[in-house]
Amino acid sequence: MKMTLVMDTSNQYLGIGLYRGDEKLEAILVNESKRQSEYAIPKLQEILEHQNVSLMDIDEMVITKGPGSYTGVRVAMTIAKTLAVIAPVKIKVVSSLAAYAGNSKAISIIDARSHKLFVGVFDQGKNIVEDQLMSIDEFDHLRKRYPDYKIVGDGELVGVESDNSQLVDNIFALSKKEEPVEQPDLLVPQYIKEVEAKKACY
After folding, report:
1. Percent of the chain predicted with pLDDT > 90
2. Residue 202 lies in a domain
3. Longest dimension (CA), the chain
4. CB 168 within 8 Å of CB 160
5. 41: how many CB neighbours lie within 10 A of its CB?
6. Residue 197 covered by a domain
7. How far apart are alpha carbons 91 and 74 in whole angstroms?
8. pLDDT tens digits for 51-65?
9. Of 53, 111, 171, 193, which residue is most buried, by most CB within 10 angstroms?
10. Domain range holding 116?
11. 86 with 181, same domain?
Protein backbone atom coordinates (compact mmCIF):
# COMPACT_ATOMS: atom_id res chain seq x y z
CA MET A 1 0.00 0.00 0.00
CA LYS A 2 1.28 3.45 -0.92
CA MET A 3 3.21 5.32 1.78
CA THR A 4 2.89 9.11 1.63
CA LEU A 5 4.94 11.67 3.51
CA VAL A 6 3.51 15.19 3.88
CA MET A 7 5.65 18.14 4.95
CA ASP A 8 4.95 21.85 5.28
CA THR A 9 7.65 24.28 6.37
CA SER A 10 6.53 27.28 4.33
CA ASN A 11 5.16 29.52 7.07
CA GLN A 12 4.55 29.58 10.81
CA TYR A 13 4.04 25.84 11.25
CA LEU A 14 6.13 22.75 10.93
CA GLY A 15 3.70 20.12 9.72
CA ILE A 16 4.63 16.50 9.03
CA GLY A 17 2.30 13.60 8.33
CA LEU A 18 2.77 9.95 7.40
CA TYR A 19 -0.02 8.06 5.61
CA ARG A 20 -0.45 4.45 4.49
CA GLY A 21 -3.05 4.48 1.76
CA ASP A 22 -5.71 6.82 3.14
CA GLU A 23 -4.88 6.01 6.77
CA LYS A 24 -3.02 8.59 8.79
CA LEU A 25 -0.34 6.82 10.80
CA GLU A 26 1.00 9.86 12.61
CA ALA A 27 1.16 13.63 12.22
CA ILE A 28 2.51 16.66 14.02
CA LEU A 29 1.75 20.35 13.66
CA VAL A 30 3.81 22.71 15.77
CA ASN A 31 4.37 26.44 15.60
CA GLU A 32 8.08 26.64 14.87
CA SER A 33 8.22 29.85 12.86
CA LYS A 34 11.77 30.56 11.66
CA ARG A 35 13.07 27.29 13.17
CA GLN A 36 11.80 24.77 10.63
CA SER A 37 15.31 24.19 9.29
CA GLU A 38 16.41 23.20 12.78
CA TYR A 39 13.54 20.87 13.63
CA ALA A 40 12.26 19.46 10.32
CA ILE A 41 14.66 16.54 9.96
CA PRO A 42 14.73 15.52 13.66
CA LYS A 43 10.93 15.54 13.84
CA LEU A 44 10.71 13.58 10.60
CA GLN A 45 13.14 11.01 11.96
CA GLU A 46 11.08 10.69 15.14
CA ILE A 47 7.92 9.89 13.19
CA LEU A 48 9.64 7.41 10.87
CA GLU A 49 11.29 5.61 13.78
CA HIS A 50 8.06 5.54 15.79
CA GLN A 51 6.23 3.98 12.83
CA ASN A 52 9.15 1.68 11.97
CA VAL A 53 9.35 3.19 8.49
CA SER A 54 12.47 4.17 6.55
CA LEU A 55 12.81 6.87 3.92
CA MET A 56 13.23 4.13 1.34
CA ASP A 57 9.69 2.97 2.15
CA ILE A 58 8.20 6.30 1.07
CA ASP A 59 6.40 6.16 -2.29
CA GLU A 60 5.24 9.76 -2.44
CA MET A 61 6.16 13.04 -0.75
CA VAL A 62 3.85 16.05 -0.76
CA ILE A 63 5.15 19.53 0.08
CA THR A 64 3.92 23.10 -0.06
CA LYS A 65 5.50 25.37 -2.66
CA GLY A 66 4.67 28.82 -1.27
CA PRO A 67 3.94 31.63 -1.06
CA GLY A 68 5.59 32.10 2.29
CA SER A 69 8.90 32.44 4.04
CA TYR A 70 11.77 32.40 1.53
CA THR A 71 13.80 30.17 3.84
CA GLY A 72 10.88 28.11 5.10
CA VAL A 73 9.56 27.02 1.70
CA ARG A 74 13.01 25.79 0.75
CA VAL A 75 13.38 23.52 3.80
CA ALA A 76 10.77 20.94 2.75
CA MET A 77 11.59 21.47 -0.91
CA THR A 78 15.25 20.63 -0.32
CA ILE A 79 14.31 17.51 1.64
CA ALA A 80 11.99 16.43 -1.19
CA LYS A 81 14.64 17.00 -3.84
CA THR A 82 17.17 15.00 -1.84
CA LEU A 83 14.73 12.16 -1.29
CA ALA A 84 13.93 12.07 -5.00
CA VAL A 85 17.63 11.53 -5.71
CA ILE A 86 18.11 8.62 -3.30
CA ALA A 87 14.76 6.87 -3.69
CA PRO A 88 12.15 6.23 -6.42
CA VAL A 89 9.71 8.62 -4.76
CA LYS A 90 7.12 10.77 -6.51
CA ILE A 91 6.98 14.44 -5.47
CA LYS A 92 3.77 16.48 -5.44
CA VAL A 93 3.36 20.14 -4.56
CA VAL A 94 0.41 22.09 -3.16
CA SER A 95 -0.05 25.85 -2.82
CA SER A 96 0.56 27.05 0.74
CA LEU A 97 -2.58 29.18 0.54
CA ALA A 98 -4.67 26.24 -0.69
CA ALA A 99 -3.24 24.10 2.12
CA TYR A 100 -4.92 26.20 4.79
CA ALA A 101 -8.26 26.15 2.96
CA GLY A 102 -8.31 22.45 2.09
CA ASN A 103 -11.62 21.51 0.49
CA SER A 104 -13.65 24.10 2.40
CA LYS A 105 -15.01 27.49 1.38
CA ALA A 106 -12.35 29.77 2.77
CA ILE A 107 -10.32 32.93 2.42
CA SER A 108 -6.74 31.93 3.06
CA ILE A 109 -4.22 34.48 4.24
CA ILE A 110 -0.49 34.31 4.95
CA ASP A 111 1.62 37.03 6.53
CA ALA A 112 3.74 38.72 3.86
CA ARG A 113 5.22 41.19 6.36
CA SER A 114 5.27 44.98 5.98
CA HIS A 115 1.48 45.12 6.63
CA LYS A 116 0.78 42.96 3.59
CA LEU A 117 -0.90 39.60 3.07
CA PHE A 118 -0.77 36.77 0.58
CA VAL A 119 -4.44 36.01 -0.09
CA GLY A 120 -6.38 33.35 -1.97
CA VAL A 121 -10.10 32.46 -2.03
CA PHE A 122 -11.02 28.79 -2.36
CA ASP A 123 -14.02 26.53 -2.76
CA GLN A 124 -13.50 22.76 -2.78
CA GLY A 125 -9.79 23.20 -3.38
CA LYS A 126 -10.27 25.45 -6.40
CA ASN A 127 -9.11 29.06 -6.65
CA ILE A 128 -12.10 31.32 -7.19
CA VAL A 129 -10.00 34.46 -6.68
CA GLU A 130 -6.44 34.41 -7.93
CA ASP A 131 -3.73 34.32 -5.29
CA GLN A 132 -2.42 37.82 -4.76
CA LEU A 133 -0.46 40.16 -2.54
CA MET A 134 -2.44 42.95 -0.87
CA SER A 135 -2.33 45.32 2.06
CA ILE A 136 -4.27 44.55 5.22
CA ASP A 137 -6.47 47.58 4.45
CA GLU A 138 -7.32 46.18 1.01
CA PHE A 139 -8.29 42.86 2.57
CA ASP A 140 -11.41 44.35 4.13
CA HIS A 141 -12.91 44.94 0.67
CA LEU A 142 -12.26 41.34 -0.37
CA ARG A 143 -13.65 39.98 2.88
CA LYS A 144 -16.97 41.77 2.34
CA ARG A 145 -17.38 40.05 -1.03
CA TYR A 146 -17.28 36.60 0.59
CA PRO A 147 -19.11 36.94 3.92
CA ASP A 148 -19.89 33.21 4.15
CA TYR A 149 -16.28 32.09 3.73
CA LYS A 150 -14.25 31.29 6.81
CA ILE A 151 -10.82 32.85 7.24
CA VAL A 152 -7.91 30.47 7.58
CA GLY A 153 -4.16 30.81 7.91
CA ASP A 154 -2.80 33.87 9.72
CA GLY A 155 -6.24 35.06 10.75
CA GLU A 156 -4.97 36.98 13.75
CA LEU A 157 -3.63 39.60 11.35
CA VAL A 158 -7.22 40.58 10.51
CA GLY A 159 -8.68 40.00 13.95
CA VAL A 160 -9.86 36.42 13.43
CA GLU A 161 -8.86 33.33 15.38
CA SER A 162 -8.23 30.68 12.73
CA ASP A 163 -8.31 26.93 13.31
CA ASN A 164 -5.43 25.50 11.29
CA SER A 165 -5.34 22.12 13.01
CA GLN A 166 -6.26 20.29 9.79
CA LEU A 167 -3.34 21.71 7.78
CA VAL A 168 -1.48 18.42 7.30
CA ASP A 169 -4.66 16.50 6.42
CA ASN A 170 -5.64 19.28 4.01
CA ILE A 171 -2.35 18.98 2.15
CA PHE A 172 -2.79 15.21 1.89
CA ALA A 173 -6.37 15.59 0.61
CA LEU A 174 -5.42 18.22 -1.97
CA SER A 175 -2.50 16.13 -3.21
CA LYS A 176 -4.95 13.57 -4.60
CA LYS A 177 -5.88 16.11 -7.28
CA GLU A 178 -2.26 16.82 -8.21
CA GLU A 179 0.06 15.05 -10.60
CA PRO A 180 3.65 14.25 -9.59
CA VAL A 181 6.31 16.76 -10.57
CA GLU A 182 8.17 15.51 -13.65
CA GLN A 183 11.55 16.98 -12.68
CA PRO A 184 11.81 17.49 -8.91
CA ASP A 185 15.34 18.85 -9.21
CA LEU A 186 13.92 21.88 -11.05
CA LEU A 187 11.41 22.74 -8.32
CA VAL A 188 11.52 26.35 -7.11
CA PRO A 189 9.39 28.15 -4.53
CA GLN A 190 6.32 29.95 -5.84
CA TYR A 191 6.07 33.64 -5.16
CA ILE A 192 3.40 36.21 -5.92
CA LYS A 193 4.64 39.41 -7.57
CA GLU A 194 8.11 38.06 -7.06
CA VAL A 195 10.18 41.23 -6.55
CA GLU A 196 7.80 42.74 -4.01
CA ALA A 197 7.08 39.42 -2.31
CA LYS A 198 10.73 38.62 -1.73
CA LYS A 199 11.16 41.94 0.07
CA ALA A 200 8.19 41.13 2.25
CA CYS A 201 9.21 37.59 3.17
CA TYR A 202 11.22 36.99 6.30
Report:
1. 88
2. no
3. 50
4. no
5. 12
6. no
7. 14
8. 999 999 999 999 999
9. 171
10. 97-158
11. yes
